[in-house]
Design goal:
single chain, 140 residues, alpha+beta, 7-stranded antiparallel beta sheet
């Protein structure tokens, strides 16, 4: 839920205030209109940066996926509930499960994610309902 993901942000960010030299991250919770996919693609292009994005698992269930990189109109990510051997290809190749369970197992078109109001698997929903966590490694 949104509250649990906010708690995760607080917990992750609290490590930057401690003596943990190998685990320094900044986590920022974004919701609604703050979830801007053009800014998100710039974020995941940064070294050691990723995002956790809330998407539909089906028409009534929300689910988080990790977006690890962005290339040529697509986010590459990791879906923890990915079923090995499952391949999806929506019309127009908006999203693909890449067929492996290593690093990235998901490829999603930025245009597919931006659609406002759709309730298809891996879409982010209406602009007012979107949630995302930006995670960035801190260099000290």
């Amino acid at each position: 839920s949104g509250q649990e993901i906010k708690n995760l942000c607080y917990w992750l960010s609290s490590y930057s205030n401690k003596e943990y030299k190998k685990f320094l991250v900044k986590a920022i919770y974004k919701e609604g209109e703050e979830v801007d996919f053009d800014k998100l693609k710039k974020h995941v292009r940064k070294t050691n940066s990723c995002a956790l994005l809330s998407v539909y698992a089906d028409a009534s269930t929300w689910h988080y996926v990790a977006l690890i990189r962005y290339e040529k109109g697509y986010f590459y990510g990791f879906d923890p509930y990915y079923v090995k051997g499952c391949k999806e290809d929506k019309k127009g190749n908006e999203l693909w499960s890449l067929g492996k369970f290593e690093e990235c197992n998901l490829k999603i078109s930025i245009d597919f994610l931006k659609r406002d109001g759709d309730e298809q698997k891996y879409q982010s929903g209406k602009k007012g309902d979107r949630e995302c966590v930006l995670i960035e490694r801190i260099d000290r």
